[in-house]
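Marked as duplicate of an earlier ticket. Keeping the data here for the record.
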Amino acid sequence: MSGSSTVAERRIALVALGAGEYAAVDLDAEGGEQARTFIGSGELASWVSAAEGADRPRWIIRSADEVYAELLAAGVRLSRSHDLVLCHAILRDTARVPIPLPPSTAWRRRDPVASEPSLFDALGEERHDDPIAELLEQYRSQREVIAREPDGRLTLLCAAESAGGLIAQEMRAAGLPWDERVHDEILTETLGARPIAGGLPSRMVELGDRVRSLLDDATLHLDSQPKLLRALHRVGVPVESTGRWELAQHDHPVIEPLLAYKKLSRLLSANGWAWLAEWVHEGRFRPIYIPGGVVTGRWASAGGGALQLPRSLRPAVRADPGWTLIVADVAQLEPRMLAAMAADEAMARAAQGTDLYAGVVATGAVATREEAKYAVLGAMYGATTGDSGRLVPRLRKVYPKAMALVDAAARTGEDGGIVSTWLGRSSPRPSDEWMRLQSDATAADPDPAVVALARRRARDWGRFTRNFVVQGTAAEWSLIWLAEIRHRLQQIPPVFAESASATPFAQEPHLAFFLHDEVILHVPEQHADAAAEAVREAAVVATRRLFGTFPIDVPLDLRIARSAEKRHPVAGASET
């Protein structure tokens, strides 16, 4: 996402016409008139490749989801884009400008799993007789909204979001290198032998029998929560749910084997042998990423569970022979973003180095690193009870600017207002039901029960907006980090001049995995140091793009390894 060049970029709108045909509209053709080229079925990859090779234009596309997979399958990559669907969601809701983009069902995201729009999507979608005019009109409207924001933040956000759309498709095409044999060995060691004809693996059978014996119910179906709750109540465990945290509060012989059974059950259902057969093929795990799938701008996943990859399976992430992995994650990203957003110099000083929580302890506000962690997380998530609630007030004395920022965001939410991230992604409005409840609570002679419920709902929404500004800004930092990594990797030459594989990822260093504040790169061994440096440089640039010269450290824990197996964290340990 290089934005330092002063040379005007070329923009080409790429419009799907149906039946595999496209139109390309050069928005910066000589003479000031748009030049249109119609591309026949099967000619898209060659035409786009030639245009990319000429001057790397910015492609104005409806959505990377709808066009980029076809190009990647033919070995063609886009350097940069403006993704109209992704940017529509931002510009429709942003509070950074007085007049945002009018909403339109035609530009909402489609189900990434479905190959065709559903019946209800088709019925509710606004149709246009001229798809070229429709796309150009949407692009013009988006540019007008972006131009209303004076300091360029929406420009940066839309560029980063669009880059994220390309990266999501590239990571799916490249896949995360995955050793199926190692995965199978982990499952067998953890769950027991795989049953030949269905059923549960041996270790789960043993634990299940033990739980039933302790509950004195030989036929109990452990995966039925109502039946399990009744059985627990009969033996004196008065829980309201079978959640891990609630069960752990009780002292009974059944708790330990039941928690162990539930843990193995989650592994089997989420990442067991069925998952392996469905999601890993030819040594690659290819999840479906959804950029901006969460209201804060964080990514989501529509399949494969990429954002919930358990630590126990990370040893199965293995580089190919002759290749290596670059694994990098950010230490305490969200509180660092808070310090920079608030321009809180004291909190920024605590963030200098590798461990922000140790810096908090050094101020004397709290006694231990654990207390510092509880206090900081409580400040960002609005904790009012327990250790976090007790410790948060101490932060107000040492970090008044940071606390004032999240406190103000919470008050705005409690009043039903909208808050925005650093670059301008805005929170949704509370529901109509929420607003009616608040109105009822302020009516003449309100019901005390209604008042209590309204206050509770207001506090809940305030906690959401409090965290929204921090989590959303951290997501923006991560997006820019991704885009800058991608840009730098493209400067590293491929391993071979030619390859039997059509995909460029068979010979070039590339991003293979992303999880909020962590990336995994798959890199030829001879380029490992250059790729690692690209990751470090990208982090520095992402911080500078957001916060200029404000002195905030965003350190990386980075390693070059054959496997993505997580090391046990050591307080304060980090490599930069």
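See parent ticket for discussion. The radius of gyration is 26 Å.
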